[in-house]
């Protein structure tokens, strides 16, 4: 069976593939555009909220709260936007990996329609927003620990990303919606955790969704070959 490091090594090795480069350019451009637009809206809402709720606090405290919330909000927002965007272009990444490494599987896979891609992207966006918003109050409390907030969001997003990345490759081959997922919970968590860690590294955070989608495709197909009836 293919190991997680091998799956990521193969994914990185295909980054120069013209098909992957096209998706990378489109996804990075759209991610930055959406992130910038949402960031402006978030900052405006934050400023208004602080004006309403920090009356009686010093300007220094209000500024500190503003900076902390902006950093946390931006950090979370980029990950959520990036994975939603890459889900929209996911089919192209999976097809590029399959054409090179799994031509037989590629020949029998079904293409997702525009409506399906959009629906899956919005569903993933909703799950990411919901999970991170639920974790936010605990994360704010854990700020005093220094590392607790980062660890909490890493755990939450490792779980989220593992599922989303698996589905990116699996949906093209799933026979029925109720079919059991091909990857174990531990494999999904390690996959998602690795990609979540890549999001913390400058420049690599732009490549992380594409690398994750390609690595997930290798893992799903390896599982399919090991257990032919799994998909």
TrEMBL record:
Spans through the membrane: 23-46, 61-90, 133-156, 189-216
Database matches in InterPro entries: CysZ/EI24 (IPR059112)
Subcellular location: Membrane
Assigned keywords, A-Z: Membrane, Transmembrane, Transmembrane helix
A Pfam cross-reference name: EI24
Membrane topology qualifier: Multi-pass membrane protein
Subcellular location, principal: membrane
Protein name: Membrane protein, putative
Upper taxonomic lineage: Bacteria, Pseudomonadati, Pseudomonadota, Alphaproteobacteria, Sphingomonadales
